[in-house]
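Let's do one together. I've listed all components of the complex below, 943 residues spread over two lines.
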Amino acid sequence: MQRFVARSGLLEGGRRRAQSLLRSQQQQQKQTRYFAQAAREKEIANDVLPKMPPFDYSPAPYTGPSVDEILAKRRQFLSPSMFYLYKKPVNIVEGRMQYLFDEGGRRYLDGFGGIATVNCGHCHPDVVDAIVSQVKRIQHPTILYLNHAVADFAEALASKMPGNLKVAFFTNSGTEANELAMMMARLYTGCQDMISVRNSYHGNAAGTMGATGQRSWKFSVVQSGIHHVLNPDPYRGPFGSDGEKYAKDVQDIVDFATTGHVAGFISEAIQGVGGIVEAAPGYLPAVYKNVRKAGGLCIADEVQSGFARTGNMWGFEAHGVVPDIVTMAKGIGNGMPLGAVVTTPEIAEVLTRRSYFNTFGGNPVSTAAGLAVLKVIDKDNLRENASTVGAYMKDRLTALKEKYEIIGDVRGRGLMIGVELVSDRQKKTPANAETLHVLDQMKEMGVLIGKGGFYGNVFRITPPLCFTKEDADFLVDVMDYNMSKL
Amino acid sequence: MAFRRQIVRATLQNANGNNFAQLARAGGRCLSSASPSSSAAPADSPPQLPPFDHRPKPYKGPSAEEVLQKRKTYLGPSLFYYYQKPLNIVEGKMQYLFDESGKRYLDAFAGIVTVSAGHCHPEILKAIVEQSELLQHATTIYLHHAIADFAEGLAEKMPGNLKVVYFVNSGSEANELAMMMARLYTGNLEMISLRNAYHGGSSNTIGLTALNTWKYPIPQGEIHHVMNPDPYRGIFGSDAAGYAKDVEDHIAYGTSGRVAGFISETIQGVGGAVELAPGYLKMVYDTVRKAGGVCIADEVQTGFGRTGSHYWGFETQGVIPDIVTMAKGIGNGLPLGAVVTTPEIASVMSQKIQFNTFGGNPVCSAGGLAVLRVLDKEKRQQHCAEVGSHLIGRLGDLKEKYDIIGDVRGRGLMVGIELVTDRKEKTPAKAETAVLFEQLRDLVFTVSESRRTVLTV
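Okay, and this is what the predicted structure of the assembly comes out as:
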């Protein structure tokens, strides 16, 4: 890491000298990289490097626009804030189960799942079948007319829910689902104050941006009526894994920052964007009790943790609570733009006071896909697989933590795993540069994973739930290899 | 909706069935575009649908009663539906829908102004199916050509410097984003929207929406609802100047003098196909820009050639907005929305991360691009103009004939027929509209969700 030493030693007078030193170091590194690449190829050939598990599938030949053409169009016609991963972005043109293919037909192991979204596997035949047969019949009549698809899906979804959670509203995204949930809580209770957790992510519309607890996602617009409480973060939080201590902060907020009555509390069982942070044990039961005492509703945001990802159907199950409202999206449709809010009949009744309507929500194609996903989760035993393969991968990663000082924490549940990199285990100083570097190198070797956390130093591993032990081995071995080169 | 059904039940019991049946028959013949025009007395036999060479697949799924029962149990009491005996729509082809028994209906509502190219249009289907079999979803953190090609295709349809595209999943999401952009770009808070407008149901857009049926009692601050430039019911008739002055007044007396922006539909959809008085937008855009605000055109219903005379509704008023939002027709039914704006306004969004997981996914982008191509190739805008003016002409004749028709308005294939019991007082004919609506169940129409009683096509 000589480059970082050189930069930190810059002084006014020695600036030019330092710059030329930097240039020669960069040239040296370029050469080193070239040799490293060549050496790596040799190693692959000689069977030294980890090998991707075999997969009997050939992608279709790609004849579309090149990377450069796409980049140029993105720069010209798409949002300037639209980012992409990697120094050399990947052009993903095809997907099959837990693998993705680029324009050259190169196969990658998808360790990110389109951000915890493709739970069944890319282009899972059952899901594609459902989509294609429905789209050929009718795409969109609106739910002002009857159609069995939305009703069948709602029924099936309700059957996966505990307690009295059995009325569903369909939206097109997690943001829309959380917006609706927040409005329902406010209407039901007649109170405005909502409580959410620091480091959370709930969406990007006005209300949900307020609930979101990370500054990078919050624009300077009015986001009133939200209180952000201490994050029950076992790794970075002041009370470690003592959930009840963090819960006291919620009571404090209720007592001192609100009228004493609140609309509700919203949280993710495992924070996704926040870096795979699972709520400390005992937190949710204590908070749910406090919030309900203050008349509020408990909303579980299952957008990332839902649909078997954690090994249970829902993330909140591992915490022994039953929420009043559950929101979901991402995995619900294996990638179809679909979201949902499930609640009790009593709470659902509030919307009858006026009219709420979602034009696309509940359309036959999205709901047919949703129903197919529920069936695949059962048929392909995805809960069991997520639990088993997830535990296996977490063990291997924990062993890796013994090996490398830079791994500060390994956490998560099922196939929602986080690996946090720190340059100092005591101070927990985020090791961003290394995170980016290893992420990039892993891509070069055919493994795609994600990045997150407030400091951007957490690997997010949320693959399709058909991930195998062999895939897990490959992922961990590739990570191991690249960390050894740091 | 429940209230409406009560009216229908009561009226059907009391009304003179003949009158309404006749009206229904005449209306039906008139609105089927292929039939010959005639201002003679209505025939005794009901009009026939134009012929259509497509046989729907036999339906083996749950019956209407079963579906209705499940809906009541699992979809909540607030989810409403049309008709005393709701339709169980199981298949669609171009402008027709089919119920469980294979009966064909003329779809004059298009899934609420959404199915722009036609149900299950073969070219769009092909694009969707092919892409679904290749890659449904990876997000924009990786590259993919579909989103880039679609963004380019959309930008090409835009005037001025409108060329940066954001993809979202619905009209509400699009308007939420547009509102946020306006506030960030200008640094001001106040937004202005029209009374009788509909812009969405999420936290911010519910504030812009100005129809009480759609507004829940939650905080919706810093929004000013100005006089609606409604040529039929507005106090200044078609004189835009009077209405435009109201915007000036709101700014001068109700704000700091500086605003974030102004948003409007060119033809209010949910509000009952109300077209803005001519010349209105030019004046208002001027006023708003002088107060530092940006102008947002909500093209969720009017976009993509629907108005016939122009591709975008705002073009009918001779203005160029700063931000354009769209959804509904953009994907022929795919859950898709977009916001198009200038590079200057887009640049404020790069202060933070703005990301939409599903937005711009390959399937919706491929579908959206196919829609653009189909609409061009099949010259749909021109078709809307031709059939639309024919339709409005025939409805105008009907208005001469029946006192109950207070107003016929609209443009292209976005037409409204307002029923009143008194042409002077313009008293809404609620009961009659409800009854007619039911009678016209064979042609799929809708009644707008406003205080008024408008059948919208």
